Amino acid sequence: MNQVKKWGAEEFWGLGFEFDPQWLLTDEQKELQAKLIELARTTLRDNAIQSDKKLLFPRKNFEALSKLGLLGLLVPKELGGLGQNHVCAAMVVETIARYGCPSTAMCYTMHTGAVAAALLRHHGNDTLKDILRRVDRDVLIGTLSYSDPETGSHFWYPISSGAEKVDGGYKVRKKASWTTSGGFADWYVIQTTSPDFGGNYSDLTCWLVTKDEVKAEPSKWDGLGLRGNQSGTLEVDDVVLSADRMVGPKGDGASSNDEAVDPFFLLCSSSCWNGISLGMIDIAKGHTTKKKHVDVGMRVCDYPTIQDYVGEAIIDTNASRALVFQMAKAMDQLTNDCDWSIHEDVSKLPRAQVLHWMWQVKFKAAKTVTQVSDKMLHACGGTGYKPGLGIERLLRDGKAGWVMGPTNEVLRQFVGKSALLGFASLDYWNQAVNERVLTNEIKKLDPAAKRQLAERLVAEASGKAAE
Length: 467
Ligand SMILES: Cc1cc2nc3c(=O)[nH]c(=O)nc-3n(C[C@H](O)[C@H](O)[C@H](O)COP(=O)(O)OP(=O)(O)OC[C@H]3O[C@@H](n4cnc5c(N)ncnc54)[C@H](O)[C@@H]3O)c2cc1C
Description:
This protein has a 4-stranded mixed β-sheet. The mean pLDDT is 96. Helix 3 (86-100) runs antiparallel to helix 4. The N and C termini lie far apart (74 Å). Among the domains are: 142-253, Butyryl-CoA Dehydrogenase, subunit A, domain 2; 435-467. It is built from 13 helices and 12 strands. By secondary structure, the chain is α+β, with helices and mostly antiparallel strands. It is globular. Flavin-adenine dinucleotide binds at residues 110, 143-147, 152-153, 155, 176, 178-180, 223, 226, 229, 231, 400, 403-405, 407, 409-410, 413.
């Protein structure tokens, strides 16, 4: 707790370690955190400005992260990685976003999600193992391509996709409306309906696709914030993939979502939003403790109003961090400290048990960043409104939190609905009939309309086109 946070040779100008939950980190993790803060100071932070101004993909930042072995953060030591756990992943993303570059933190979040999906099913798959072994050495950036143009933020419902068995493997097609690092990543985990799909959209399969097999249009990317994350459209156009490119067994998509993709996306993206909140509080401290009003002889930080803003922002952000790290710890406990060997048994899905907690984690972090960004802008006044201070960019970056799928509208409904009506009521794939609604609507029909409906249904049921 007495450790002094450094910014190069100086003491850090934002919040010190007294407001960070350092007790959660091992010595090795604290060492990594210190190296990462230094890397942010020397490299990541300046590149963030360029990424924002020029819509520049942060490859340079990834090259720098690879020097610390961070692309293989979760990769077991036997495969050459750092073999780290959920707590460390949360700390790393938060640190990149806070002191360095939120676009890089988001690309790194998607990379981590792709690594998790690959690690979940790498047992017995030499192609996946080969990528995992080389992520740092060859700076192999991964990402997740899920969202479908037909289903918006319901990214678990890939209508414009599919796969079929052909000679030499599987012919795969995919249309994605958004893909972080799209066209810049070296490898992609994508999800389609399964080969032999028979109309059941919960029957999903994951695939590994490489950069030469995708069509991306990065020139069309633009956005309010996270401008370096390059989340453009992506297409896989009937590409034939060998059998080893199937990530996990056929039909494993829903399990892969619940056990790897969602838990890591929700954990790391929440850490990104908390990192942005902290980055803004740091800037607000740096600015308000320097800026003076000569007429009253006060600095901006001397006004109780500004102290209240900062106090509330710290409390809200640390409440959100407490939830993130509590769930990171819970997942560490459930998985023997993120031991991927437990998944040699494909039926083992411990993280999926706490997915509804991860929904709460993401909702809280994305909500908090919008409130904190508003207040930190107010605390810095007109100076905060101008790009120079950096608050303005972080405010735009943080806005992505609420709208990224699963969106906060969807998440609060998932939590409330499952609490009130049970998990089965969530009906991700639109399969369960709501008898209450059906009965109520039919009640409104007069006898003739009922007869007409009944005839249409009988015709449909017997396979004839209804007139
Ligand atoms: C910066 C950024 C990076 C991204 N990166 C990736 C990526 O790497 N991979 C990927 O697959 N996707 C990615 N996405 C896509 C993201 O996850 C969502 O799919 C996307 O933001 C949805 O946008 P939309 O316009 O289709 O929203 P819509 O789905 O049309 O939503 C519009 C509104 O409807 C609400 N809504 C939707 N469903 C419901 C419901 N059931 N109940 C109540 N309200 C509802 C939403 O909450 C929202 O308010 C990214 C998005 C952003 C902004």
